Amino acid sequence: MLENLRLRHYTVEQAEELIDQLVDVYLDAHAKDGPLYNAKRYRQQLAMHMPRAGWELVAATVDGELAGYVYGFPLSPDTRWWDGIQEPVPPGFTIEDGRRTFAISELLVGRAWQRRGIARALHNELMSNRSEERATLLVRSGNNAARSAYRAWGWQSVTSLRPAWDKAPLFIVLTRTLGQVSSAAPNE
Q1: Do the bridges between strand 101-109 and strand 56-62 make them parallel or antiparallel, or are there none, so unpaired?
Q2: How far is it, in rounded angstroms, from Cα 178 to Cα 96?
Q3: Taking every annotated instance into account, which residue ranges of this chain make up the domain N-acetyltransferase (predicted)?
Q4: What is the percentage of the chain residues whose pLDDT exceeds 90?
Q5: What is the pLDDT of residue 179?
Q6: Where are the domains of the chain?
Q7: Could you report the per-residue pLDDT of 163-178, keeping only the tens digit for each?
Q8: In what order do the strands lie in the sheet with 171-177?
Q9: What predicted TM-score, i.e. pTM, was given to this entire model?
Q10: Residues 183, 129: contact at Cβ < 8 Å?
Q11: Is the dihedral of CA 21, 117, 35, 174 positive or negative?
Q12: Which residues pair with 107 in a beta bridge?
């Protein structure tokens, strides 16, 4: 772990001041992932996600530089998170009440900071104080490094999901019972 790593929780209002930096880290982390990962689409995503009840961001800085961040929110009863989920899924799996499932939308670390334990630190910090029953996230099916890290951190694959947006990739749906903090070695 980096000695000068600092983790900080941000409210929506505080995070609004970081939007340009959040976009920069996003673009850097996804530099090789194709045209879907662009600034315009990501700004729209942030604008849709940040107003959601319970939205939370944890940012990691090293010597004052934003190295990475994670954010998510509880899934509301009318969530579209599960749109495009592939069968089979356990009965009742997609039923939400605003308190059942916390969804991690992004966990990003800039390329210069990867493989130093920052993603694990961000993940554990965000997950450490959640009151929901479970958490979920989506990982691109071909992102084997992320899938391995999540597996080491206690996440389990449930099924796959393909969102309805144009040229959407296939994602693997992962879930994790909350109240578990991983101490596994970083594999980010």
Answers
A1: unpaired
A2: 16
A3: 5-179
A4: 82
A5: 66
A6: 5-177
A7: 988 888 899 999 999 8
A8: 5-10, 56-62, 65-74, 101-109, 134-140, 171-177, 156-161
A9: 0.90
A10: no
A11: negative
A12: 70
